[in-house]
Each structure stands twice: as structure tokens, then as C-alpha cells.
Design a protein that fits this description.
By secondary structure, the chain is an alpha/beta fold. It folds into 2 domains: 110 residues, 3-Layer(aba) Sandwich (Cobalt-precorrin-4 Transmethylase, domain 1); 153 residues, Methyltransferase, Cobalt-precorrin-4 Transmethylase, Domain 2. It is built from 11 helices and 12 strands. The strands form 3 sheets. The chain has a 5-stranded parallel sheet, sandwiched between helices. The termini are far apart.
Length: 267
């Protein structure tokens, strides 16, 4: 049996009772470490679960998943995922592979930023398509996500922006030389995301958004250190929301009065 178990967003105690029962009885438990991060480290989880965890980075999940699934034919293996286990396409692919291998699977859901973003007061049913904002480089500055934000905005819908994270990413030099060398981990902040958006707006002044458009910054949602800030995009690019992970919301142009009242406490 192969289990995908969501850990939620807070700390070690956010796992569900069912998820914890499965973790305790599994033959092997892997902790996925590249699509998100938890506020508590691997050691904290091991202490709470009372067992050892195997750190599963991108390389392990992508290159060794077939081996893991073959093992799951005769033993119980769990992969722990921050948030909800189906929040990333990587995990959907794992389930499809498991089906091809004839391996039984079970999913244990949990809270993710996709529903916990409602903590800022903007109602979930008023959101449009979620977008991802990637880190730019000197030679690569994609802006296709901006068109989706504008599409939502034109339909009076909010946009949740998931911000890029880089964990155990190979350096350009290592890819050229085919050696294992990785960049230091980094996590995009709302400051960086707002700055990139403002650069796009400067080049597309008639798109509908401006530097005075409202933005909602969120950090460490679901943890005791959760923070929310409501500012203009211009002000957001210089505002420090503290430690990662961060998310950014671009509200619809016409916000419901109840939503506006809730947002007011974060200004």
C-alpha cells in the first residue's frame, strides 16, 4: 500500500488522527521536502511521530519513485506532504504510476494554502484561477501569470499567487558539467513578488492593475506566527512579512463590504 498523507500547514500536531495512525504502522515513511516547507523541521516531526523519517527531495521522488512503488506492493509506505497531498501535480503523477504498477493507494487530506487563504477574509468562492509566480533571472522573465491575474481581475475575482521556492535546485554550472552542485535554498517573499508585478505593470499600463492596486500578503499561514498585511502593490514591495512561506493575493476590484471590513484589520 502507498499512502499520500497531508501534514497541514502548522506544526507536527496538524496531521490528522488517521494520518498519524498510518505513519506509526508503516514500514517506511518518507517526508517530501521540495514542493513546500513546514514550520517544524524533520527532527520535530520524528519526535512527535516516534519514528524515523526519510527525507525525499526532488531527485529521490523523480528518479526513485518506481522503486518506491515496487516496494509498496509488499509493504506499507507513506509519503508525507506539507499541506494537502494533491496540491502539486507531482503527487497526482505518483498515483497514476502506482495504478500502472498495480499498487493500492490511499490519500489522507489536510488543510492547504488553497483553502487556508480564506484567513484573510476574502471568500473562497470569489477566487479565480490560482497562479504561480516564478523567480526571474537576468535572461528569463516570464509574465504569463500576469495575464491570468488580469483575467480574474476583469471578472471581479480574487487571485491567489503561489510564490516560487527553490530547494536543492541544481546550479546552471552543474547542469553544464553534469556534476551535483546545488543552489542555496530560497523562498520568494511578497516583496519580491510585488516588485516583479510592478515591473510588468510598468510595461503594461493599460492592463487594469496599477501601483496603487490593493494586495494582500500572507506569511506562515496556519502557524502561530501567521501574519497578514493589506497594502498597495507599491507599498508591498518594501514590506517585510518575516520568515517564509509567503503567499500574495490580488483582490478583485469590487470587494464585498463584508470582505472589506475583514481586510481592514490588516491594514
Amino acid at each position: 500500500m502507498f499512502y499520500l498523507i497531508g501534514l497541514g500547514l502548522g506544526d507536527a500536531k496538524d496531521i490528522t488522527v488517521r494520518g498519524l495512525e498510518i505513519v506509526k504502522r508503516c514500514d517506511k515513511v518518507l517526508l517530501e521536502s521540495y514542493t513546500s516547507i513546514l514550520t517544524v523541521g524533520k527532527e520535530g516531526l520524528e519526535e512527535f511521530y516516534g519514528r524515523q523519517l526519510i527525507l525525499a527531495d526532488r531527485e529521490l521522488c523523480e528518479s526513485s519513485i518506481d522503486e518506491i512503488l515496487r516496494e509498496a506492493k509488499t509493504s506499507e509506505i507513506a509519503l508525507l506532504v506539507v499541506g494537502d497531498p494533491l496540491g502539486a501535480t507531482t503527487h497526482t503523477d505518483m498515483l497514476l504510476r502506482a495504478k500502472d504498477f498495480g499498487v493500492e493507494t490511499q490519500i489522507v487530506h489536510n488543510a492547504s494554502i488553497m483553502n487556508a487563504v480564506s484567513c484573510c477574509g476574502l471568500q473562497l468562492y470569489n477566487y479565480g484561477e490560482t497562479v504561480s509566480i516564478p523567480y526571474w533571472t537576468d535572461t528569463w522573465k516570464p509574465d504569463s501569470f500576469f495575464e491570468k491575474i488580469i483575467g480574474n481581475y476583469s471578472r471581479n475575482l480574487h487571485t491567489l499567487c503561489l510564490l516560487d521556492i527553490k530547494v536543492k535546485e541544481p546550479t546552471e554550472e552543474s547542469l553544464c558539467k553534469k556534476v551535483r552542485q546545488y543552489m542555496d535554498p530560497k523562498f520568494m517573499s511578497v516583496k519580491e513578488a510585488a516588485s516583479q508585478l510592478l515591473q510588468i505593470i510598468e510595461n503594461k499600463p493599460d492592463a487594469g492593475l496599477s501601483k496603487s492596486s490593493l494586495a494582500v500578503g500572507l506569511s506562515r499561514v496556519g502557524s502561530p506566527e501567521q501574519r497578514i498585511a493589506v497594502k498597495t502593490l507599491e507599498d508591498m514591495q518594501s514590506f517585510d512579512l518575516g520568515a517564509p512561506l509567503h503567499s500574495l493575493v490580488i483582490p478583485a476590484p469590487n470587494i464585498h463590504p463584508l470582505e472589506m471590513d475583514y481586510l481592514a484589520q490588516f491594514r
